[in-house]
Design a protein that fits this description.
Elements (H helix, E strand, L loop, with lengths): L2 H9 L23 E7 L6 H15 L4 E8 L5 H11 L3 E6 L4 H11 L4 E5 L10 H9 L5 E5 L6 E3 L2 H18 L10 E5 H7 L10 H11 L4 E5 L1 E3 L8 H20 L15 H4 L4 H30 L1 H24 L8 H29 L5 H27 L4 H6 L4
Parallel strand pairs: 1-2, 1-4, 2-3, 5-8, 6-9
Antiparallel strand pairs: 4-7, 5-7
Length: about 425
Amino acid sequence: MSTERRSALIDRPTSELAALPRRAPLPAHHPDPVLDVVVPVYNEENDLEPCVRRLHAHLGETFPYSFRITIADNASTDGTPRIAARLAAELPGTDWIRLAEKGRGRALHAAWSRSRAPVLAYLDVDLSTDLAALLPLVAPLISGHSDIAIGTRLARGSRVVRGPKRELISRCYNGLLRSTLAVGFSDAQCGFKAVRRDVAERLLPLVEDQGWFFDTELLVIAERAGLRIHEVPVDWVDDPDSRVRIVSTALADLRGMARLGRALACGRLPLSALRRSDGDLARELPAGLARQAVRFAAVGVASTLCYLLLYLGLRPATGAQAANALALLASAVANTAANRRLTFGVRGRGGALRHHLKGLAAFLVGLALTSGSLAALHHSAPGAGREVELVTLVAANLAATLLRFLLFRAWVFPARDNDRRTTGSS
């Protein structure tokens, strides 16, 4: 990817960028290979041949559309290029490219950019992921249902065999993504993904990372733009000979998260250029900011009235601070439940406990604001009456409500959370 091409797309006015066309199923008889599976490799002379031959046999026996396998060699120094060239000559529908520089993201960007297949995928050369999941992975893209598909090892139905160290690192990484960038997808790191080519053409110029963070960056940008991400539970067996350098990769990922977070916060990415022009977009995306704000305000008015009534009822028996805490706790639980259903459109029991725990964390912020306001009032005006207390609490509660809305939208009920559950993940 050239820096000039990326800068040109980012700096170009959004009005000049046509929206992505409506998703449509691919024809049964497509003139070109429908699927291009990229296998990125670096010094994989031992695993490359058995991987590609097994993948080729699997696709030939089970895949109902034409396909291509592309070996993307990124600067290997062993016998990998020789083996890749021989496999491309021997196996029909197999190709290979060689890059002068290392980087899995760089290899995927190069291979996907040159491909004309309408569906682009990749998998790791160790074949840790069972190939039985390949057709379920790409089927939603072929049918026009989704824009991107990912394998997940962290969903119900996944079967994973790996050591506790790798398991802990994976869960911590994905948990960090959810807490910092409020992502809805469950597994950013599984080397088993696919994307429609029209989407890749818009996404790739926006992705800066050329290494292991490439996948995460692509998914976060796609999700923020409202593209539909389908998740497939996979069977996955850890490769004990993994070449991933955990410490250096983790540091690079943290730098990538910080960079991407800044770009999103500053609005430097043209996300609107990735939106679909189809009429069902409104059903795919959560309610807009204005609509959510109106509903949140209505719920807030009701919960504030409930809070004030509880406070007035408890104040004589418990004192101001205890009455404030108890009234705010009761109204916060009701507020979270009402906003979950009415404002953010989340239905069903899935994730309910997590939502309420996060809602209680937002409640603690409100408690700190209102309790702090009461403490400041009593310190500066010890003889203040009930009317002054109520005015102070209402003002503090309004400030807490605004902050809680922002927390609800970005953290408690992230934009894609509800849609993610409808597309096969948990």
